[in-house]
Design brief:
This is Nucleotidyl transferase AbiEii/AbiGii toxin family protein. It holds the Pfam family AbiEii. The chain is built from ten helices and eleven strands. It is α+β, with helices and mostly antiparallel strands. It has two domains: 166 residues, Nuclear Transport Factor 2, Chain: A; 122 residues, no CATH class. Strands 1, 2, 3, 4, 5 and 6 form a six-stranded mixed sheet that branches. A hairpin with a 2-residue loop joins β5 and β6. The chain is globular.
Length: 294
């Protein structure tokens, strides 16, 4: 068995091999590995039901489209008083949870915390593996309430086959929020990432139509979005001009045309929307392997 002080060196050697195989920088994989091991500690802590995977990090984790060059991740939690001090204390405890030796040392006394208004808290957590120090940046979005219960998902491990189970924001609500955005602003370049996110979920996840319909209805209600007949998001085909096409290419981790993405988004959402228009229920199931409702 390796001595504890040999573990960081062994981990760095393994990460260096993976970096070479995947043509990534070692620094990027150290940051990604540090995120992963923080989540292992979260899953093993008493806080595992209080902080859920959320946002772009969750989207990447469940669709295998995660960006390993980013040191940031997103979580969500319920709103709380004295949020900065409570969240800082929680993550000091999470970082201190004992797990199988993985070479990571978190500097819990150097955790930085700040807020962006009432709904976001930002953490910066120093993590060290051997001679390399990285900083994990976490954005925690705070909600009054969430209309659906979280789901457990398994997140893959970078260096071994074991996975970690964590609570995650419901994928149906992710689609509903992004649909609400493109519904209201279908032609804006800023919504290209929302189209792409829905495409990734539609091409990798199965859905119960009734559950997704309820998520959309709840989201539209919360945002006071009006149900229109044949809204532009479905009735028009949008071609990308040069500037939007450049923005589109920068988004992609796989080569796919916007026309293909738009088509799949329509296939997923139009049948549900038609039922919403006539105040009827939708009971079909989405099969991502065939990319259609059954």
């Amino acid at each position: 068995m390796k001595q504890v002080n040999e573990v960081p060196k062994s981990v760095l050697n393994q990460l260096a091999e993976v970096a070479q195989q995947q043509q990534e920088s070692l620094e990027a994989l150290v940051a990604f590995y540090s995120q992963e091991r923080l989540l292992v500690r979260l899953a093993a802590s008493s806080y595992e039901d209080q902080y859920w995977l959320y946002g772009e990090f969750l989207l990447g984790a469940i669709t295998n489209d995660i960006e390993k060059s980013s040191s940031g991740m997103t979580l969500c939690a319920k709103k709380m008083a004295n949020k900065e001090s409570i969240i800082k204390h929680a993550f000091q405890e999470i970082c201190s949870v004992k797990v199988t030796e993985d070479g990571i040392v978190f500097a819990i006394d150097e955790i930085e915390v700040s807020s962006s208004g009432e709904e976001e808290v930002h953490l910066r957590i120093p993590a060290q593996i051997g001679h390399i120090t990285t900083y994990i940046e976490i954005t925690i979005t705070l909600f009054d309430s969430v209309s659906m219960t979280p789901r457990k998902i398994a997140t893959a491990s970078l260096l071994n086959s074991s996975s970690t189970e964590l609570l995650a924001y419901p994928t149906e609500l992710i689609i509903a929020h992004k649909f609400n955005t493109i519904y209201q602003y279908p032609t804006l370049a800023e919504t290209l990432k929302d189209y792409y996110a829905i495409y990734l979920l539609a091409s990798t996840q199965n859905f119960e139509g009734r559950v997704l319909q309820e998520a959309i209805l709840d989201t539209f209600h919360r945002h006071k979005t009006t149900i229109e007949k044949n809204p532009p998001v479905f009735s028009k085909r949008f071609d990308l001009d040069d500037s939007k096409n450049k923005a589109w290419q920068q988004l992609l981790t796989q080569q796919v045309s916007f026309a293909k993405v738009q088509k799949l988004v329509h296939q997923l959402l139009w049948p549900i929307y038609k039922k919403i228009e006539v105040e009827d229920e939708f009971f079909e199931n989405w099969d991502y392997t065939f990319c259609n409702w059954q």
